Amino acid sequence: MRVPKLAVWKFASCDGCQLSLLDLEDEFLSLADRVNIAYFLEASKAVIKGPYHISLVEGSITTEDDIKRIKAIRKASKYLVAIGACATSGGIQALRNFSNIKEFISIVYARPEYIKTLDHSTPISDHVNVDLELQGCPVSKYQLLEVISSFLNNKKPNIHSYSVCMECKRKGNVCILVSNNIPCLGPVTNAGCNAICPSYNRGCYSCFGPHESPNIKSLSNKFRDIGMDDSSIIRSFRMFNSYSKSFRVIDNERA
């Protein structure tokens, strides 16, 4: 019986989502018995040619070469899964999408003419068909395990799409937005972190990005009610998932 090949690819990112896979430790070793880890430079120098049964892709597309490479990966993969905020929404580097990238380059680099980059940092799905997007900054290692195991067994992954508020309720947390007027993006954010920030009396920063049907307008109005001005509201949405379709239009700027 042919052993399925697993490949893990990196584009513009910090490697945090790949480390989440390694952080599975014992579970990862068990997984390694079921798949041939054909390409995963974070873990091994071994490189085995495709085609691949599953490709996990971390990072956003930021150069012309990235576009060519992701198309080749898509062609060589039965299933392609975008993992993390960079791969699913352009990541924190997508903050450049709202400004002039050429101005940034001229300030940072002594010889800007040598820098070849796209004007926008974009998610994988802007360039190829993606079989599944797994949100998070970084992704949940348990969700990663669920996705890989499900695709190996030809079943749909059981990944929830409700908000962080549901996780707060399950933990018995008092709502910090309602009770303490602390700005919190939990009502519009996909669950997956087990409400770690609200559990320590901090507002959610939306590491896991927008859930399926976020009511951005309602939450923005609530932020105004507790004293936030429009500039502060825009900044609150412009973090890890600023270029997600739901968050990018918070100030009616459509890129």
Describe the structure.
The chain is an alpha/beta fold and 255 residues long. It folds into two domains: 5-152, NADH:ubiquinone oxidoreductase-like, 20kDa subunit (Rossmann fold); 164-237, no CATH class. 34% of the residues lie in helices and 11% in strands. It has a five-stranded parallel β-sheet, sandwiched between helices. Strand 3, helix 3 (64-75) and strand 4 form a beta-alpha-beta unit. The chain is globular. The mean pLDDT is 92.
Structure characteristics:
about 260 residues; alpha/beta; Rossmann fold; 2 domains; five-stranded parallel beta sheet; 11 helices; 5 strands; globular
Provide a compact summary of the structure.
With 255 residues, the protein is an alpha/beta fold.
